């Protein structure tokens, strides 16, 4: 049996006998959705009421927004642990051929509750990783769409997790903090009040998940990611994306124009650490978790500091600075460092990549990709 997982046993006596204690309370109070409940349709997982435990089995995992920066890499790690067929990627975009070859992929629009529910029921999903979101800069350019995807989509996933007793992971972000938050370091619990729709939606998600956990027993888990740096995906509209683009530019043209000031310090993390933190957190027994939302930290640096480290490998790199007012204002409202002491204490989080290791790995990975694609390397 998976560590930290609870079990419920269907009952033929009561209508809600097949639901865990928290989900039964939620189902009785539900008035805004119309469900057809039956013991055959409800997962037997996630209850404290049973003494007759089913045999151990791997989780069945659905990842929304799977073609973004993190979904494919996380799926690869989870498939190695739990089996390829037990991890389903989903998105609204057409996947590249290599993603289709790597394992199950399905179309899923987080705004379509009925479709999501069918996916969960038909595939016997027990864990849901909700990556669908518009990031900070893209969200500011289209607030209405960001509100739909980041908030309405989140509510669909929360409702579905309650109905089906899922273990639900929803990432949060450095953007959940605002200019009135402590900046060096930012603790897990403090004033937040962000100034972007992305940040507002993430704070909303943190609080809704915590509320539903305390009121109904939802197994909600959330990590506040720093800027995540990966060689496997292109920048996707985030304020920290310069820290990905600078490596591509260093190896292609030898010149990078940065949209932040040279001294803008922000928390960052190698994608390998990000994936490992997510998996370890999802696997942690509930009894070890004192919080539902944790900061995770690895390093903090400025554009000039990462450029200096890159020049140890590519001395010719030239960086110019042309601050963009939108991105710079967002960055100036964010913390320069995370306090992740609670994650380290509760479930043993510890990063492995520092700035030196990150730069070496990014340059090596991107160089190999460009060489294999027949592209020139500066």
Automatic annotation (TrEMBL):
It comes from the Eukaryota. It catalyses: L-threonine + NAD(+) = (2S)-2-amino-3-oxobutanoate + NADH + H(+). Its EC number is 1.1.1.103. It holds the Pfam family Epimerase. Pathway: Amino-acid degradation; L-threonine degradation via oxydo-reductase pathway; glycine from L-threonine: step 1/2. GO terms for biological process: L-threonine catabolic process. GO terms for molecular function: L-threonine 3-dehydrogenase activity. SUPFAM superfamilies: NAD(P)-binding Rossmann-fold domains (SSF51735). Residues 61-296 form the NAD-dependent epimerase/dehydratase domain. Belongs to the NAD(P)-dependent epimerase/dehydratase family. Catalyzes the NAD(+)-dependent oxidation of L-threonine to 2-amino-3-ketobutyrate, mediating L-threonine catabolism. This is L-threonine 3-dehydrogenase, mitochondrial. It comes from Salmo trutta (Brown trout). The lineage of its organism: Eukaryota, Metazoa, Chordata, Craniata, Vertebrata. The gene is LOC115172718.
């Amino acid at each position: 049996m998976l560590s930290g997982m609870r079990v419920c046993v269907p009952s033929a006596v009561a209508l809600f006998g097949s639901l865990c204690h928290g989900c039964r309370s939620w189902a009785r109070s539900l008035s805004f959705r119309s469900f057809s409940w039956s013991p055959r349709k409800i997962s037997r997982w996630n209850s404290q009421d049973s003494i007759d435990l089913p045999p151990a089995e791997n989780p069945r995992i659905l990842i929304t927004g799977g073609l973004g920066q993190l979904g494919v890499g996380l799926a690869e790690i989870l498939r190695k642990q739990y089996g390829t067929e037990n991890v389903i990627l989903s998105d609204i975009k057409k996947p590249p051929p290599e993603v289709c070859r790597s394992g199950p992929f399905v179309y899923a629009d987080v705004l379509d509750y009925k479709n999501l529910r069918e996916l969960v029921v038909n595939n016997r999903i027990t864990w849901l990783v909700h990556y669908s979101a518009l990031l900070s800069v893209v969200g500011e350019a289209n607030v209405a769409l960001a509100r739909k995807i980041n908030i309405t989509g989140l509510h669909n996933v929360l409702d579905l997790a309650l109905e089906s007793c899922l273990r639900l992971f929803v990432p949060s972000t450095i953007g959940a903090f605002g200019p009135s938050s402590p900046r060096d370091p930012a603790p897990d619990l403090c004033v937040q009040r962000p100034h972007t729709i992305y940040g507002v939606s993430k704070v909303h998600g943190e609080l809704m998940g915590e509320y539903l956990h305390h009121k109904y027993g939802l197994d909600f888990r959330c990590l506040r990611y720093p800027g995540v740096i990966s060689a496997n995906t292109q920048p996707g509209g985030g304020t920290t994306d310069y820290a990905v683009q600078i490596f591509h530019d260093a190896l292609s043209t030898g010149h990078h124009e940065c949209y932040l000031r040279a001294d803008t310090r922000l928390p960052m993390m190698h994608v390998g650490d990000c994936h490992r933190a997510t998996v370890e957190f999802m696997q942690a027994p509930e009894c070890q978790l004192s919080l539902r939302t944790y900061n995770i930290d690895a390093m903090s640096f400025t554009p000039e500091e990462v450029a200096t480290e890159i020049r140890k490998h590519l001395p010719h790199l030239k960086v110019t600075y042309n601050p963009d007012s939108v991105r710079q204002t967002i960055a100036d409202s964010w913390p320069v460092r995370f306090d992740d002491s609670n994650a380290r204490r509760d479930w043993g989080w510890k990063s492995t990549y520092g700035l030196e290791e990150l730069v070496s790995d990014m340059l090596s990975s991107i160089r190999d990709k460009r060489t294999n694609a027949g592209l020139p390397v500066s």
